[in-house]
Specification:
eight-stranded mixed beta sheet, alpha/beta
Length: 354
């Protein structure tokens, strides 16, 4: 059973204003279980969990954010364990290890995964992210390190970047903490939404730092959360889309940025007038970028891709025109299976490069 998402009419109304190649196929249909899940997530994050004064209801978030405890026994075929770096800032990460890893002749690549949630919601033990990282570890296969970071609005920029980078440095300095199958010479940064934003800035920091064991071969950027003061065509077409609304993204940026800064800050508008240039960073990794047609953020993501190419960086763009922001978290959507094939090919190719 399929459900048509109501925002389709708003997109159709804008079809005469923008080039036809920017208009996704209509109407958007979702499997009924995904439709229900998407509607609930959108409703709670739009109207229930966030407050007009810029705060969030953490008690309600903790109640509704279903958690998955660490699983030592491989279920299914992947074991996990948690490691705390700094309890004072709740800095920890979850390691996912395929149970069949020891059967491989060669060590496994390492994926540092940074979760999304508008810098405000979720964590590595949120059920959806635990399932996604478990699938990623099993399907590649790879050792996956899912990073917890401090959340907004209690902790603003650059706390999230600091936490993610500190995990990268910690693993570099303590390689024995990982499973013996982990090959730190073949590392990848991966992240979705806000996590896609974070891994870009972590990659820039990494290019300016010295690592002993970690070598970053590529970035897997799934619908990264970028923005700016300008309203793009996609934002005008889809002010209220599944999972993401323009009002919500504005709220998240306000909760994230230092007081007095606007959305053209370099952390937000990464390819804009205040951008931190990457052209001179020789070690900046190749990027695999995923964009969806029903994502109001898609134009910012495409600008990022074009900016990387102009900067002389290697980047591949994968477009799924008929799906939504966060599609990879919904197994009923066909693109949530396709993405693993794309990621597997990218990791296999870049892991061989010298």
């Amino acid at each position: 059973m399929q459900e048509e998402y109501a925002n389709g009419a708003a997109i159709e109304a804008a079809a005469d204003t923008f080039p036809t190649h920017t208009i996704p196929k209509l109407p958007l249909s979702l499997p009924w279980m995904t439709h229900i899940a998407v509607s609930l997530v959108s409703h709670f994050t739009d109207y229930i969990m966030r407050r007009s004064d810029g705060t969030v209801n953490r008690s309600l978030i903790r109640l509704l954010d279903l958690k998955s405890p660490r699983i030592i026994s491989p279920i299914p075929n992947v074991s996990s364990t948690d490691l705390t770096l700094d309890p004072t800032r709740n800095l920890w990460f979850r390691i996912f290890n395929p149970s069949f890893a020891s059967s491989f002749d060669k060590p496994l690549p390492v994926i540092f995964f940074i979760h999304g949630g508008g810098f405000t919601f979720l964590s590595p033990d949120s059920l959806g992210y635990d399932i996604f990282c478990r699938r990623l570890a099993r399907k590649l296969p790879a050792i996956v390190i899912s990073v917890n970071y401090r959340l907004c609005p209690e902790y603003r920029f650059p706390s999230q970047y600091d936490d993610a980078f500190d995990v990268l440095k910690y693993v570099d300095e303590h390689p024995w903490e990982l499973p013996s199958e982990a090959d730190l010479g073949r590392c990848f940064l991966a992240g979705d939404s806000a996590g896609g934003n974070i891994i870009h800035h972590v990659a820039v920091r990494a290019c300016r730092s010295t690592f002993e064991a970690v070598r970053i071969r590529g970035m897997i950027s799934i619908q990264p959360f970028f923005g700016g003061e300008e309203r793009t065509a996609a934002e005008i077409q889809m002010p209220v889309a599944p999972i993401v609304s323009v009002e919500k993204t504005d709220w998240c940026w306000k909760a994230f940025l230092p007081k007095g800064e606007d959305r053209d800050h370099w952390a937000v508008n990464v390819s804009g007038p205040n951008a931190v240039e990457v052209a001179g960073l020789e070690e900046f990794p190749a990027v695999l970028l995923f964009v969806a047609g029903f994502d109001p953020l898609r134009d910012w993501q495409k600008r990022y891709y074009e900016w990387l190419k102009r900067s002389g960086k290697e980047a591949d763009l994968v477009e799924y025109p008929n799906t939504i922001h966060g599609f990879h978290m919904f197994p009923d959507l066909p693109e949530s299976a396709q993405i693993f094939s794309e990621i597997t090919d990218f990791v296999a190719l870049k892991a061989k490069a010298r």
